[in-house]
Design brief:
The chain is an alpha+beta fold. It has 2 domains: 6-186, Serine Protease, Human Cytomegalovirus Protease, Chain A, CATH 3.20.16; 217-249. It contains 4 helices and 11 strands; from the N terminus they run H-E-E-E-E-E-E-H-E-E-E-E-E-H-H. The chain has helices spanning 6-9, 96-100, 164-214, 222-248; strands at residues 25-31, 36-38, 41-45, 59-62, 71-78, 82-87, 108-111, 114-123, 126-135, 138-141, 151-154. The protein has a 7-stranded mixed sheet, with helices on one face. Strands 2-3-9-8 form a 4-stranded mixed sheet, with no helix packed on it. A hairpin with a 2-residue loop joins strand 8 (114-123) and strand 9 (126-135). It starts with 5 loop residues before the first helix and ends with a helix.
Length: 249
């Protein structure tokens, strides 16, 4: 069986070399709700399985060059199709990647996956292990992906000669990436607004305390003034009686 490799589907195309220092790779590292045979059981990944991994550091490597990480994963996001990724610019001298990815790479897998929670659900009469929680450490380019729906390509490259599945994946990725960036900026805006509201409340409480400290004591009410006057007169009469009693003795 010949490997799914881009050089196989457009072998006659001239392969342009790309400056690795400015290279970014995009794609889907795993597809959600795609049932595969993994070992002796069936498996699929839930769309929310990698929610805890999206902010964790990860890197990209290739199965035929596994010893050297090619680039850090700059952005991970999850949409309805799968776990999308975008690398930071490459900073290495290996030139095999652009030769092999001139028209997209037809296979990506996740490496260093740690499953934290799962259950079993029936699918077409078969019991399928559904991964509900997992973490990922790196994404790997491979010609034998566990999930056939994955794909990767160089950002900005012309995919006109790529297989239709890669072109469709790229279109889904662009939409998912835009939505993820929008959600991220909206969340950041909400956090900034909440911080501003908290700061305003703290400032208002501080000003209220300072104003209360500077404010003169309130004038006594009429009832308080009348009661004080009666108490003062009673005390004065008591003093007078004591003085008279002392003088009489």
């Amino acid at each position: 069986m010949s490997p799914r490799h881009p050089t196989a589907f457009r072998s006659g195309q001239r392969r342009a070399m790309i400056d690795l220092r400015n290279l970014r790779v995009c794609g889907y590292a795993i597809t959600f709700n795609e049932v595969i045979a993994f070992g002796d059981e069936l498996e699929m990944v839930d769309a929310g399985a990698f929610a805890s991994s999206l902010a964790r550091p990860a890197y990209l490597n290739a199965i035929w060059h596994e010893a050297e990480p090619l680039a850090d994963i700059e952005f991970l996001f999850a949409d309805r199709h799968g776990l999308g990724f975008r690398t930071a610019p490459f900073d290495c001298t290996w030139s095999g990647l652009p030769q092999s990815m001139t028209h997209g790479f037809d296979g990506v897998s996740i490496g260093g996956i740690d499953i934290t929670s799962s259950d079993y659900v029936p699918v077409y009469g078969r019991s399928v292990r559904r991964i509900l929680g997992a973490t990922v450490r790196h994404v790997c380019l491979t010609d034998q992906p566990a999930y056939p729906g994955t794909a990767a390509w160089i950002e900005g490259q012309d995919l006109s000669f790529a297989p239709s599945r890669i072109r469709q994946s790229a279109a889904r990725w662009r939409l998912g990436h835009s939505n993820a960036l929008l959600a991220q900026s909206s969340a950041a805006a909400r956090r900034r607004r909440d911080e501003e509201i908290r700061a305003q409340k703290l400032e208002a409480r501080y000003q209220a305390r300072m104003s209360a400290a500077r404010r003169p004591p309130p004038a006594p009410s009429r009832a308080t003034a009348a009661r004080t006057s009666l108490e003062e007169r009673a005390a004065a009469r008591q003093r007078e009686r004591l003085l008279k009693f002392g003088a009489a003795r």
